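Preliminary data (for renewal application), fe (ii) ion complex.
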Amino acid sequence: MPDSYELLGGQLHMFVTQPPMLPLTFNQYLLATEEPLLVHTGSNADASRLCAQLRVALGDKELRYVFVSHFESDECGGIVKVLDAFPSAFAVCSEVTARQLSGFGLTECSLVKAPGETLDLGDGGLSFVAYPSEMHLWEGLLAFEETRSILFSSDLIMRLGSLDQPVVKSDWVTEVEAISTEKIPDPVALEKMRRVLSPLAVRFVATGHGPALDVERR
Ligand SMILES: [Fe+2]
Ligand SMILES: [Fe+2]
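Predicted structure:
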């Protein structure tokens, strides 16, 4: 299985790790905007390899942002190595996640975003959606890139199993309806999540695990 793919005409780099004996891939993405954005760092153990891949993909550009949807090792375990390797970059995350990072000594590297806020990437931009993520349903964030209609869905919309192909087809209504109480155990929060996601003009889902999704609208 290759460990990187160029998607959307080279605008989106997908880096994939599959640990032996585990039927799950861990995906990170580099969005090649004027202000380049990395989505997640993978684990600390895999971060040096990711940094090398990023250097190649970035060319002479500087990494500006590292989006961290929530505080967990596969999403940000490599954050220290990535920020050391790319000192101009900031971690972009929720207030709760920034508090966790500061507890690990990462105090001045976070750009805190709230749901509804945006981030300008030059020839693109993110808007942020509240994401009640795993531990204690702490508030994390999902990011929607509005120019390219890419949702970075983290653990919320994902696939288990190994990766046969980097992108599979799906449709948005099915994906939103399939978000279950396994992902968001609180029924009120789950319904709110579906209500916020449904109207988003998503065309492509960059999942945290498994293949990315090329989504149709119906
Ligand atoms: Fe997670
Ligand atoms: Fe994850």
